[in-house]
Amino acid sequence: MPPIPGSGLAKGLAVTLRTMTKKSVTAQYPDVQPELPPRSRGVIGLFEENCTVCMLCARECPDWCIYIDSHKETVPAAAPGGRERSRNVLDRFAIDFSLCMYCGICIEVCPFDALFWSPEFEYAETDILELTHERDRLREWMWTVPEPPALDPGAEEPKEIAAARKTAEKLEAQRAQEAQQQEEEEGKE
Ligand code: SF4
Ligand code: SF4
């Protein structure tokens, strides 16, 4: 059956009428910053103090885009007669974001919580070579990492927090006991 003349125009106008009454969803970036979900994979931040240079992240990265250099240092014995220890010192930690596929494997495998996702995304460059970012920049991004979400009310208390709480309670009880003993001694005098 041949199309009715003007039906295409009517359909097009119907679409226009339908959409012109709806609120626009266009984001006026960069004048208005987008509200990103807290777990957005923008860039990877490095918390250098936690890094032991175990190389696990670099070995597991499917793109081989993490570059780590380090050297060994001897730490003197903590007590007389003790043994000297050697430890790794980080010299370079860089990620080539032109190769990175944002899979998150490096963050998952880091046993020492040294890598985190940051929602920061404004690091585009006109030269691809400048997308390799060194430890200072990775560290700056660390401060843009959002706080972890609160635990569910019924969730088990994390081991680290439980241990810190128990130690604090023990110290508090010890102090209270000492204060009570002192009061009693002062009362006797
Ligand atoms: S997110 Fe994936 S590809 Fe990117 S550095 Fe980490 S492991 Fe490598
Ligand atoms: S896995 Fe973690 S601790 Fe090991 S080198 Fe990578 S960032 Fe450092």
From the structure above, extract its key features.
3-stranded antiparallel beta sheet; EC 7.1.1.-; Alpha-Beta Plaits; binds iron/sulfur cluster; about 15% strand; two-stranded antiparallel ribbon; quinone; flat; about 190 residues; alpha+beta
Structure description:
With 189 residues, the chain is an alpha+beta fold. The protein has a domain at 33-150: 2-Layer Sandwich (Alpha-Beta Plaits), CATH 3.30.70. Helices cover 33% and strands 17% of the residues. Bound molecules: iron/sulfur cluster (SF4) (2 copies). One iron/sulfur cluster is lined by residues 61-63, 65-66, 95, 100-106.
User: What about the largest sheet?
Assistant: 3 strands, antiparallel
Net shape: flat
Span of the ends, CA to CA? 114 Å
CATH class of the domain at 33-150: Alpha Beta
CATH topology call of the domain at 33-150: Alpha-Beta Plaits
Q: Give the C-alpha Rg.
A: 29 Å
- The helix/strand order is HEHEEHEEHH
Alpha plus pi helix count: 5
What small-molecule ligands were found? iron/sulfur cluster
Binding site for [4Fe-4S] cluster 1: 51, 54, 57, 110
Family: Belongs to the complex I 23 kDa subunit family.
Subcellular location: Cell membrane
Subunit structure: NDH-1 is composed of 14 different subunits. Subunits NuoA, H, J, K, L, M, N constitute the membrane sector of the complex.
Task: Produce a short descriptive summary.
The protein is of the alpha+beta class.
Which helices and strands, and how do they pair?
Elements: H1 7-20, E1 43-46, H2 56-60, E2 66-75, E3 85-96, H3 105-109, E4 115-118, E5 132-133, H4 135-142, H5 159-188
Antiparallel strand pairs: 1-4, 2-3, 3-5
The protein binds iron/sulfur cluster (2 copies).
Residues 51-57, 68, 110, 112, 114-115 line the site of one iron/sulfur cluster.
